[in-house]
Amino acid sequence: MLAVPKTVLVVEDDHDIRELIVIILEADGYEVASLDSGRDVILTVQRTSPDILLLDVMLGDMDGRDICKALKSSPATSQMPVMIVSATHGWETRHERQCMADDYVAKPFDITDLLVRVSNLVNRKSA
């Protein structure tokens, strides 16, 4: 029996970066869905229950940190791992920590590092 692939939701407003992340994750065996804005993230998460969410901070229509905080504050979605993927450095600032993300990757990111971090969070969730 084949294992069911882990699902990833990628939210990134930059088309090229979004497509790159999708290609990388699919090549590593993940089932990937993606959104280009923040407006449908919470509804999509509630409908599809991804194993992990990769979330940009500076989306065109919303701040990814606010989305992360809303998801982490809801009992229905609080256990889903969220990884912030952003060009903004300074993860250690109070505002960044308050969003309660499980991990952070700065752009530009190392592909191997991204895959290791995603795997660690997905495996932690299923443990």
Automatic annotation (TrEMBL):
Pfam family, one: Response_reg
SMART domains the UniProt entry points to: REC
The entry's keywords: Phosphoprotein
Gene3D superfamilies: 3.40.50.2300
Name of the protein in its database record: Response regulator transcription factor
Classification via InterPro entries: Bact_response_regulator, CheY-like_superfamily, Sig_transdc_resp-reg_receiver
Species, as recorded: Mucilaginibacter straminoryzae
GO BP annotations, alphabetical order: phosphorelay signal transduction system
Matches recorded under SUPFAM superfamilies: CheY-like
Modified residues (4-aspartylphosphate): D56
Origin superkingdom: Bacteria
PROSITE patterns: RESPONSE_REGULATORY
Ranges that cross the membrane: none
Occurrences of domain Response regulatory (ranges): 7-122
